[in-house]
Amino acid sequence: MTFQTPAPAVTAAYVSVRGAGKTYMSPRGPVPALLGIDLDIRPGEFVSVVGPSGCGKSTLLKCVAGLEEVSTGEIRVGGRPLDGPPDKLGVVFQRDVLLDWRTVLDNVLLSIEFLGLPRAQYRDRALTLLNRFGLAGFEHRFPWELSGGMRQRASICRALLADPELLLMDEPFGALDAMTRDDLNIELARIWQDTRKTLLFITHSIAEAVFLSDRVVMMGKAPGKILDIIDIDLPRPRSLAIRESAGFAAYTQRIRHHFAELGIVKE
Prior knowledge:
Layout: E1 15-26, E2 29-41, E3 46-50, H1 57-64, E4 72-77, E5 80-81, E6 89-92, H2 104-114, H3 119-132, H4 148-160, E7 166-170, H5 178-195, E8 198-203, H6 206-212, E9 215-219, E10 226-231, H7 246-261
Parallel strand pairs: 3-8, 3-9, 6-7, 7-8
Antiparallel strand pairs: 1-2, 1-4, 4-5, 9-10
Helix pairs in contact: 2-3, 2-4, 6-7
């Protein structure tokens, strides 16, 4: 049985991006990557960003993560201007970035070590997360013994271990096969449904964005700017079967048609 999740109450944004621009310098001159980005993400909201390669999606995520400074404008997280990575942040990149000389469990616990927290206090939580993501029995294996999907599962466990308030994911399933990607989409949706973390998700897949999100942000060609923001009014929790519904198809067609009108994709 499904139910309709109530719309989030109007409240102050947890992530607020105002007039954000990013320009890189090269020997041939300035290279603009982002231009005039305005975006609010409410607490507990799942927001996806879709757009063509090179449009600045990953740059936007890195700026929200405090890994890159904006050239113009301002980003606030939790009401505070960014001057580096914000507190209670988890990040998952397209590559899992696991350390091959550490076991899966030790890789997951690495995030705790970076924060200077006691490993023993988080060991049980790490094992619980590994079990939830289908990695029970692999905690003492090494990353090179795992498939790509299993490695990415471990990477997600590592990001979730310290219970972050803000989770940033940069095309985390882009390199996986379709079946593994579907499986991780379902598990991520369940995790978000249970925890309601504020989540910014970067993807090339329109269908993935619609399936996972409360809102989908459409970005155009570089320099990256927001073309439109689409509210996704589909019931939660969502199963893969919802992708066969007329409502789901309407959202994906609307987004694809908008990109086609701008010459970004072909129909």
